[in-house]
Amino acid sequence: MSEWNLKETLLDKEDVFDGTLLHVERWRAQLPNGAIATREMIRHVGASAIVPVDGEGNVYLVRQYRAPIARETLELPAGKLDSKAEDRLQAAKRELEEETGLRAKEWVKLADMAAAAAYTDEIVSIYLARGLEKGEAHLDDDEFLRVVKMPLRELCDMAASGKIQDSKTLCGSLLAERYIGGEHAIEPENCQ
Amino acid sequence: MSEWNLKETLLDKEDVFDGTLLHVERWRAQLPNGAIATREMIRHVGASAIVPVDGEGNVYLVRQYRAPIARETLELPAGKLDSKAEDRLQAAKRELEEETGLRAKEWVKLADMAAAAAYTDEIVSIYLARGLEKGEAHLDDDEFLRVVKMPLRELCDMAASGKIQDSKTLCGSLLAERYIGGEHAIEPENCQ
């Protein structure tokens, strides 16, 4: 697609911080004009997130505390992959049941979202899950969250009025509304 | 809004990595059950992003290379704040003109998006900009990007079919479409 070459060439890289949760690499890269630039980035295993929508158009969310932004958030159920190799749909199924106690019969991939492409390789795969049925919730020991159910339309209205902060929840709710709306749009009697 | 206390209490924090671009803090926090947990997080100055839409419904985007995900992306014009204290709307105006050579007469805040609330405090303020007029592009020395113009509707269709990865671009395009659609929806003749 490019007429211009925008690509950077990786010259070398090193681990510069290896924490409990975060892993930082420093890259030396050659820019399109030949100059050398430093790039620091978080290596992340990746994550899956779920927009679980029931037959009445309700979505199930989790309310939790997020220390980096010092506030509670309302978010899609989500979790990290167990490893880079883990199947993302399997991870979505596991996280949905762990966090909400729900299973789903119908799964649709909505997006692979790069959370912050400037400094992390984290990709969040976002799925629409329908055909919900009861499973078993079982949170990790250090997980504290509360399940909240509301109409998807209401969540999207909250997103549109600045009441949702979390990036995957903004993307997932709006994509799900557009996807479901698109299905409905093929039935012209819905337009009045 | 909470019946339960989900909040973590910060006990102490230290700088554990101070790089050229990334700054990592390690926090010790007390969980709601009294247990102590470690939190590592990226401190980020924050950013502003713009959905610039012209009178014909076209949006202006930038194509650039993102080393962490090793690919070119199509993104909203955006940039970091100069400091935590910088006015976010002023930063949006500066970045729009620097990256696209456009100025705008009408600005609407669409969202304050937490890019990755699990491990960074980065908030991206996303603005809809209309009433576009020509200004002067002037990129930073290490910025390589190409401006792309397309119908906002086409960008949203790309978002809905997995062709957009960047989180702020997914959020901003869908919020702008919903916002503009909402304005149009008050004109019933648009529904056919």
Automatic annotation (TrEMBL), chains A, B:
> Please, which domain of life does this record's source organism belong to?
Bacteria
Q: Which GO terms describe its biological process?
A: nucleoside phosphate metabolic process; ribose phosphate metabolic process
Tell me the cofactors it needs: Mg(2+)
Which controlled-vocabulary keywords does the entry list?
Answer: Hydrolase
Q: What residue stretch is flagged as signal peptide?
A: none
Entry keyword annotation includes Nucleotide-binding: no
Q: List the Pfam families.
A: NUDIX
Xref: InterPro entries: NUDIX_hydrolase-like_dom_sf, NUDIX_hydrolase_dom
Record domain Nudix hydrolase: where? 42-172
GO MF annotation list: hydrolase activity
> What name is this protein filed under?
NUDIX hydrolase
